[in-house]
Structure formats: structure tokens, C-alpha cells
From TrEMBL:
Top-level taxon in the UniProt lineage: Eukaryota
GO molecular function, one term: ATP binding
Keywords: ATP-binding, Disulfide bond, Immunoglobulin domain, Nucleotide-binding, Repeat, Signal
Family indicated by similarity: Belongs to the protein kinase superfamily. CAMK Ser/Thr protein kinase family.
Name of one Pfam family that matches: I-set
Residue stretches making up the Ig-like domain: 20-111
Record lineage: Eukaryota, Metazoa, Chordata, Craniata, Vertebrata
Gene3D superfamilies membership: Immunoglobulins
Region of interest: Disordered: 1-21
Protein name per its UniProtKB record: Ig-like domain-containing protein
Keyword match Ribonucleoprotein: no
Length: 129
């Protein structure tokens, strides 16, 4: 939606008004990681005025303390980083973008698997013939 202000063609200023939207379809995407690995969920968005970004896990606002960090760049990209993921971090994450012209949200499922354990069997007896 474009709106113009002013009365003369030379004196008009244009304000672009655009509801929020994600620039990459399906972003952020589902992920599966091993416990202890870092996770980064990225959402690239647009809207005018610039949308406010909220990250939620299982419908609760993510608190950006400790291992959880949210970083927003000037080129309308928001990243949720989870350092050293734990099994309890698994769940449904939502990136919600809001401005005065609307709201959009994208969902990501995170699965955190237990540490891989490699089992090595010792050879206890060696038979020589």
C-alpha cells in the first residue's frame, strides 16, 4: 500500500506502508541437532514500518538470557541462537513479526537428540592357531 501526502506534484512525499512478511518461504526451518551443539534459527523479513520481532517456544516468549541470544541485523534479519542445546530445548519455536499493518508468524520444530555414544567392545582373548 502506498500513500502520498501533500497537494502539489512536486511537494508530495511518499510513505510506503507494508504489512510484515517473511522473505524466505518456510523460514525458519525445522532442525535436528545432537545435545551440546549450537542452534541458529534465522528469519529474514520485511515490512514498513519495520516489524517488531518476537521469538516464542511452545507459545511462551523466549527469554534472551544464558544460552539463548537474539540478534537482529539492520537488513531485517533476526537470529535466535541457542548455545549448547539441551534436550529440554526441543519443541516448537515461532518467529512472530508485527507492525501496525499486520502480524505474520513462521514455525520451526527443534529436536535435540542425546549425545551419540560409540561403543567399543574389547577383545578379551586372542586365539592363535
Amino acid at each position: 500500500v502506498m500513500e502520498t501526502e501533500g497537494s502539489s506534484p512536486l511537494g508530495r512525499s511518499m510513505n510506503l506502508k507494508e504489512p510484515p512478511s517473511f522473505q524466505v518461504k518456510g523460514a525458519p526451518c525445522d532442525q535436528a541437532v545432537i545435545e551440546g551443539e549450537d542452534v541458529v534459527m534465522t528469519a529474514k523479513f520485511r515490512g514498513q514500518p519495520k516489524p517488531m520481532v518476537n521469538w516464542l517456544k511452545d507459545n511462551v516468549m523466549v527469554k534472551t538470557v544464558g544460552r539463548f541470544v537474539v540478534h537482529e541485523t539492520e537488513n531485517a534479519t533476526s537470529e535466535l541462537r541457542i548455545n549448547a542445546a539441551q534436550k529440554s530445548d526441543g519443541g516448537i519455536y515461532v518467529c512472530k513479526i508485527i507492525n501496525e499493518y499486520g502480524t505474520k508468524q513462521a514455525e520451526c520444530r527443534l529436536k535435540v537428540k542425546g549425545e551419540s555414544k560409540i561403543r567399543i567392545k574389547e577383545i578379551s582373548k586372542l586365539c592363535l592357531i
